Amino acid sequence: MEIKQKRMTKQKKLIMDTLASTTCHPTADWIYQSVRKNIADISLGTVYRNLQVLKEEGKIQELNYGKNQSRYDGNPQLHYHFVCESCGCVLDFNLDNKAMLSLILPAAPGSVHTHRLEVYGICQDCLKKHF
Amino acid sequence: MEIKQKRMTKQKKLIMDTLASTTCHPTADWIYQSVRKNIADISLGTVYRNLQVLKEEGKIQELNYGKNQSRYDGNPQLHYHFVCESCGCVLDFNLDNKAMLSLILPAAPGSVHTHRLEVYGICQDCLKKHF
DNA sequence: GTAATTGCAAATAATTTGCTGGGTG
DNA sequence: CACCCAGCAAATTATTTGCAATTAC
Fold first, then answer.
1. pLDDT in tens, A51-82
2. Cα radius of gyration (chain A)
3. Which nucleotides of D are covered by protein (CB under 7 A)?
4. Does B116 sit within 8 Å of A65, measured CB to CB?
5. Strand D within 7 Å of which CB atoms in B 34-63?
6. In chain B, what residues touch A62 (CB-CB under 8 Å)?
7. CA distance B53 to B20
8. Is the CB of B14 under 7 A from strand D?
9. For the range A63-71, what are the long-range contacts, defined as Cβ-Cβ under 8 Å and sequence gap of 24 or more?
């Protein structure tokens, strides 16, 4: 389950760069298709292995809100996600963290380590186009 | 993808009752093992089909926060979940919904339909036992 | 009676893993 | 040049689905 990794391979570097350069929150397969343009014979297993490693290193986040497929987020900072129910895109947003914690801490049935919030609705683009 | 159902079968009723009578947030397989005690030849496929139907009817919620396996919650009301990182249990909790929405609405990049929050930490039981 | 729903088993889909050769440090 | 990590393909896991038989209404 836990993977240790010490070397920087070109595959790992490319996966990191790919995640860092996109604002979408891609699936493993999207990343695979993307990095394949540069390293044609990279394997999907390698993509999964490196995503796992990067997650353990705290460099990326794995998102799996209510989907059968995980998405990956190149931004490891605590932030929140807005999922568009029309186009399926996942957008980042921030909100007042202190206020959020002051809501959560008194209510939580235990000591709090971290938290995740996702909001579902219709994004600005879809609102303009379809509604 | 979408399933319509009109009849109340003993299988469906038992699955509803099982979910209503537990405070844990069981997996499909846990539910299957549980209902099998009463209907020995029920199939896992039927459990999945009925969970899907109950979800569409708004009678239960599916939870799949960061896990490879979905859990089901017999309480369809908006509420929040606390996941214990020690024992893995999932506890319900509530918090001031108006305050939560007043945090989210100004920050969200679109029109908000619903939201989900899970908090990770150590539950009271584990705090007493292990920490 | 008849159409919805079940049980069964095979199909899917995403992800993980064992093995061996290749490339990094 | 040692051993970590990639590629490949097969394995695993959760879930879904097609079909004939059963059952609720």
1. 999 999 999 999 987 678 999 999 999 999 99
2. 17
3. 4-10, 13-18, 23-25
4. yes
5. 44-45, 48-49, 52
6. 66
7. 15
8. no
9. A63/A25, A63/A90, A64/B64, A64/B65, A64/B66, A64/B67, A65/A116, A65/A118, A65/B64, A65/B65, A65/B116, A66/B62, A66/B64, A66/B116, A67/B64, A69/A27, A69/A28, A69/A29, A70/A27, A70/A28, A71/A25, A71/A26, A71/A27
> At residue B3, does pLDDT exceed 80?
no
A88 class by beta-carbon count within 10 Å (0-12 exposed, 13-18 middle, 19+ buried): exposed
Q: How far is the CA of B107 from the C1' of D5 (A)?
A: 43
**At residue B2, does pLDDT exceed 60?**
no
A110 → closest Cβ in B103, B104, B127: B127
